[in-house]
Amino acid sequence: MTPAEFDTWTRWTRESVHRWAVDPIHDGREGRDLLLYIGGENGKFLRFDNATTLEIGSYEGAVPHIGEATFQVKGRMTFRSRILAVIRATEIAGRVFISALSDNPGDRGCG
Asked: What is the domain partition of the chain in residue ranges?
């Protein structure tokens, strides 16, 4: 990783301190799982697999990015459909996390 890439990832992680962020690598596109997190270096996450399972938990050590973090799953739920999983995640995290779903991580130079 170049110094510029390190700075970009660190900035991306820092921006998640007060708002939900979508991991640019696990962005739900093309059958990938979807990872949303909040808290910067240490915080909380929601992870959807590419089917109907939702995991919730906490993470530590996301420096320079969430891929470096240690995750602790605190709950795992399986739903009949992906939309039901998203509805439950909204109940857990609040409606503001949905705005992160519409962000395009590629627009910020990461991933």
From this structure: 3-106
Amino acid in position 99:
S
Contact by Cβ (8 Å): 67, 1: no
Size (the chain), residues:
111
Q: Which residue, among 19, 13, 11, has the nearest Cα to 42 in the 3D structure?
A: 13
pLDDT tens for residues 44-91?
999 988 778 999 999 999 988 898 999 999 999 999 988 888 888 888
Compute the half-sphere exposure of residue 77: CA atoms within 13 Å on the CB side of its CA.
16
Q: Give the pTM.
A: 0.80
Structure tokens that stand for 111 in this block: 């991933």
